[in-house]
Amino acid sequence: MRYFDHEKLDVYKIAFEFVMATESIINQLPKGRAYLVDQLQRAGSSVLLNIAEGAGEFSANEKIRFYRMARRSATECSGILDICKGLHFLEEESYLAIRSLLLRIVSMLTKLVRTPSIRQMEKQALTSQRCG
Predict the structure, then answer these.
(1) Which of 63, 67, 96, 128 is deepest in the core (most CB within 10 A)?
(2) Are 5 and 37 in contact (CB under 8 A)?
(3) Which letter does DSSP use for residue 3 in this model?
(4) How many whole angstroms separate alpha carbon 28 and alpha carbon 35?
(5) What is the model's pTM?
(6) Residue ranges covered by each domain of the chain
(7) Angle separating helix axes 92-114 and 116-131, nearest 10 degrees
């Protein structure tokens, strides 16, 4: 079976798990808080989609740019979840579990952005283009 590049990334798998977990939180939110639902859905989806888009890029700088956007969206999700917890829409156990996923995602994305191998891949590609 063939896979897309993003499907091979552990961070993508965890981000997918996060998006699925947000659905249960969204179902717990009161009807009058549609703005929180919308923001959480958008930011959560943005994490996943930017990881996928970054993995599909050839340029190391573009990969890094998408991974950084995914990281920013993950921290936005954290803020949204803090609001939900502060307004008592989220139980402590649920909050800690989903927060743990976000911390893993942010940590993994930070490592991807700082990984010299991404920049090394771009240098190798440029060198092979010049030689070929």
Answers:
(1) 67
(2) no
(3) -
(4) 14
(5) 0.86
(6) 5-131
(7) 30
